[in-house]
């Protein structure tokens, strides 16, 4: 089985654009949580979010015409992907043939800002506010830009990444939660281990900081703990990518190696079974004994924190150090797994040769995952 | 590495529901395209599509109670197709528990009608409040993992649930990924497929705006004409298809009926434009060549191609070029057929439905025709099986799926020999 190592990290998060910056801010207890800038969140149980500060995203997009096709998810994705590839010192086509570089990513619930579909809504309604198909077909459709479809299709952010970075190899795009983000990472690892790729860009992007995002999260019950206890997950936006490479090839090109993938596991939550039980069964065979740190999945929802804590105890894991990225950056949902693993990779690199770090991905939806990273 | 076989098929489509009806429709050259009646399309520029008729929904809902709980039509279609595939494979609950589930979908349905109650308000907050007021019973958008969760919970599938959203390549990718997991020993059995329905106001309206749909509203059955010189665009349709895949030893141990063997899978990206296929077909060729290599074959080992063939001017030329690049002279010796001429484009579900058709091509020994092909495009010069079905004595079928945005997937199926 071929070893897989992490050689590049690219982050665009509410807390910063480098992993060192993000980890330092997380450990210092800083937070990017604030009131939404674009709308009043008063109708929602959660009234805060975490947004990415302004940065020069246009430098990643070749022209204004292409820019018009891109949703914010896609903009963040291409920026993070570019940063990961630059961080890895990777030149696609030179270090690896474009068709041997894979792309596996996760995207979230369609992140179209309500402002963009508002003309459709307004011009579809009759005087009484009822949806009228005649109006929709005659008046509303003419008032939206044809590119709207590009902004709703869940695969578009990753397609832009492939175009801008000339990636042509094996690919897969998954949706919509953290567990699917973890699956994207696993798909990249497997492609390299099986020899179908030598390198893979893996990660995710998500934007939940707009009105429609808040609507979706509240409607799907993710603000439950906010309503019940006044605490909970903070909707965030961002994108994170990792460059994975086959270890021998990475060493040959003298790449900087953050960490080796020491193990991973995926599991499916069962209705009626305590998640702590399912998750502890996932953790146990990973044998992260001696893990120097755990990157916790806790996101402010007391239930998730409790499940994770219990699962760690049941699996007999007692890590000397824990970091909680989501408490500072907010929950990046489809991009959250990549953030967990990126933070773990940074800790391994800084920690030295004996460091092992467990990255937990215990989020919403039925799919859960964990990764063990070790020094290479 | 283990051999992987197909032991269950399930499909709902505009040309027929259930594998036998679907197959009979395809071989008879029956078109599933007609006027859209699911909602009032009289004000839409495109008014034709490939609708699925599920028949007696009350009877179906009695068998699958989840159908009545879903607003999103693709989830309903997917549940019916998955039920058929599992019943067809005679799978036990115990075997399913550790199975892997792979579902392809494309985009979310937005129920805009939930927001129009406050549409004339200048205040966006009122829009939000209006939508939230309905939150107890429904949601504005259905998460794309809903179908996987519904199927997984209904049948007790806990070996992983993967929701692939690679647009028109999603169904083929879902099946391909399941195949690789089985072959590499990650699981013993998988249920893989896809479901989609763009036949809703936003879906039909959005695709109309992109100008890739045929506008031949008065000529629905001939509107989708892959490889024909007069083709004007594709026809949006809906459907769902699932296959049960197993490691050979698992299938033989339980004496399962084997329809075909799965031999190879690869995916690639055009890295060209999100709106157009790469004109020379290099991305598609990369994918086909990868799948042939993955199957341990050479181009001479490919006996038939199920083309993606949407009937759009650019796609059919690029795919023809890709086939020529990969197969060389062999491209002119084998049949290349296009079932979208009858089914229309089921988007994410098309690759899965075409996989079912490929498996049946092998086990039934018949190639469904490409209908509506009367005047071949000079740039599309292969043998496209025009008009009528044809006997097939070959051993392998290669099936292409190319997604909006530049994602490509190729599956290869073979005749099963002990």
Note down, in words, how this protein is organized.
The complex is a heterodimer of chains A (376) and B (418). With 376 residues, chain A is an alpha/beta fold. Chain A has 15 helices and 12 strands. Chain A has helices at residues 19-27, 64-69, 72-87, 114-124, 133-140, 148-152, 156-165, 178-193, 211-219, 224-229, 247-252, 275-283, 302-314, 325-329, 336-351; strands at residues 4-12, 33-34, 49-50, 101-107, 171-174, 199-207, 237-246, 259-268, 293-295, 321-323, 356-361, 367-374. Chain B has 418 residues and is of the alpha/beta class. Chain B is 32% helix and 19% strand. Chain B has helices at 19-27, 57-63, 73-89, 93-97, 124-133, 146-155, 170-183, 201-209, 248-253, 282-294, 313-327, 340-343, 350-364, and strands spanning 4-13, 16-17, 33-35, 48-50, 100-104, 161-164, 189-197, 238-247, 260-269, 305-306, 336-337, 366-367, 390-391, 396-403, 407-414. In chain B, the strands form 3 sheets. In chain B, strands 1, 2, 5, 6, 7, 8, 9, 10, 11, 14 and 15 form an 11-stranded mixed sheet that branches. In chain B, strands 3-4 form a two-stranded antiparallel sheet. Chain B has a two-stranded antiparallel sheet with strand order 12-13. The longest helix of chain B has 17 residues, at 73-89. At the A-B interface, helix 4, helix 5, helix 6, helix 7 and strand 5 of A face helix 5, helix 6, strand 6, helix 7 and helix 8 of B.
Strand order of the largest sheet of chain A: 5-4-6-7-1-8-12-11-9-10
What is the number of helices of chain B? 13
> N- to C-terminal separation of chain B?
16 Å
Q: How much helix, percentage-wise, in residues of chain B? A: 25-40%
What's the overall average pLDDT of chain A, rounded? 93
Question: End-to-end span of chain A in angstroms?
Answer: 16 Å
Q: Pick out the low-confidence regions of chain A.
A: none
Number of strands of chain B: 15
Number of DSSP-assigned strands of chain A: 12
